[in-house]
Specification:
Organism: Streptomyces achmelvichensis
Shape: globular
Distance between the termini: 70 Å
Protein name: Transposase domain-containing protein
Number of strands: 7
Number of helices: 7
Largest sheet: 5 strands, mixed
Strand content: 15-25%
Radius of gyration: 21 Å
């Protein structure tokens, strides 16, 4: 008889009627117990059992940021792809949209504040200089939907005769060099330059850090 090796992988999952509360590899990084705690803290946990519990919606929004060019339905499919064999509902786009509005921004903001921070171990290559943790400020521009509900805050660019392109959001972040871990972030209309946003990040610095800044 030939010898065989069997490898068994055990994954802790969230309890409850809706198994996708532990959807995907995201829970290996963002633990569902943490998501539940953030929902409780921000008062956004559902008041009654829903087909789209608040925990699931948080993971869905996180997945949207990973697959920014995909539709709601496509992202949902990616999120539950590993749950074959379970009797899962397939929510409509309108249901997913309403669920996003229901939880609002508070739990996502609190989750970011909890997870953001340095991760490099002391002495890690590229992350320290003469004992100081090296960090840097960098910025980018992101497209946002061309919708009246958004363009009042994020106006489209204007030429001599007409508006053009999609509205832009300016995102400026403080990152740890060597790991690219995000320590803090600020964002708003593209019309403001990077410096006003960069000033909002200075509170995340401390005496153990060395800030590397470019000419801009």
């Amino acid at each position: 008889m030939q010898e065989k090796s069997v490898i068994v992988r055990m994954i802790e999952v969230a309890g409850g009627v809706y198994a996708p509360g532990h959807v995907g590899e995201l829970t290996q990084i963002v633990d569902f117990a943490l998501v539940d705690a953030v929902l409780e803290e921000t008062g956004t946990r559902e008041k009654r059992l829903r087909l789209l519990p608040s925990r699931v919606v948080v993971y869905f929004v996180l997945a949207l940021s990973l697959f920014e060019h995909d539709s709601y339905r496509t992202v949902w499919g990616k999120l539950v792809a590993g749950l074959e064999g379970l009797a899962l509902v397939r929510p409509s786009v309108s249901s997913l949209s309403r669920a996003r509005r229901r939880i609002g921004v508070a739990p996502l903001r609190r989750l970011f504040e909890t997870l953001a921070g340095p991760v490099a171990a002391r002495g890690q290559a590229g992350a320290f200089y003469r004992g100081l943790r090296t960090v840097a400020v960098d910025g980018t521009l992101l497209h946002v939907p061309d919708d009246e509900a958004i363009t009042w805050r994020y106006p489209k660019r204007v030429g001599e005769k007409m508006e053009f392109g999609y509205p832009l959001l300016r995102l400026v972040v403080l990152v740890e060099c060597g790991t690219r871990a995000v320590l803090a972030a600020a964002f708003g209309p593209e019309s403001e330059g990077e410096l006003p946003y960069a000033r909002r990040l200075l509170g995340a610095l401390d005496h153990s850090m060395l800030l590397l800044a470019d000419a801009g």
